[in-house]
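Protein record
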Amino acid sequence: MLDVAVIENAAAAEAALDPIRAKLLAELREPASAATVAARMGLPRQKVNYHLRMLEGFGLLEVFAERRRGNVTERIMGATALSYVISPAALPGVAPDPSLERNRLSARWMLALAAKLVSDVGTLISGADKAQLRLATFAMDGEVTFASAADRAAFTAELAAGTAKLVEKYHSENATGGRKHRIVVALHPSVKTTPHITKSAGTPGLSKES
């Protein structure tokens, strides 16, 4: 089972987004039979079987084992991945296009870049899986707290200049056998987590828990 799988087919994306099928994918992170999953979800087995067949047809589920129960062969189904990402390639007509605007300070341009990143890496993963090859990638993720907007602007300028120097140092346009690699650098405010609100024990009113 993969950690993450990329859905590039529009029909597969539509199938996965159905609430019942999305729930089935989550339930089948641990392989189980249709009867077992139907009982967990409180749904008729026939209805579950219908959705399972559709998900299997798009390669989102697979058969892990088969076992005989009387005159019936019971299939043990499981999701092909722990989680799924829908690529913008599934919506080719309206997928974000970062080439339409190149304002490095635009949050929407950043979003378009992120969408292209998901699309490109999804395509590369699919190709690497079919060829049974390892895909060479690198990513960083972290947080930095700025004391002021001026510090943030200075950091951004240094980051851009430092990245440009690295590109200039290692870029070989005419290298024999060389392969182009894409660089995406992003900086955005961290998303604030919404405090969970609960009633305080023994006291009236509400309190916030972090």
Notes: The first strand starts at residue 2 and ends at 7. The radius of gyration is 24 Å. Strands lie at 2-7, 32-33, 61-69, 72-79, 81-86, 196-199, 206-209. Confidence is low (pLDDT under 50) at residues 199-210.
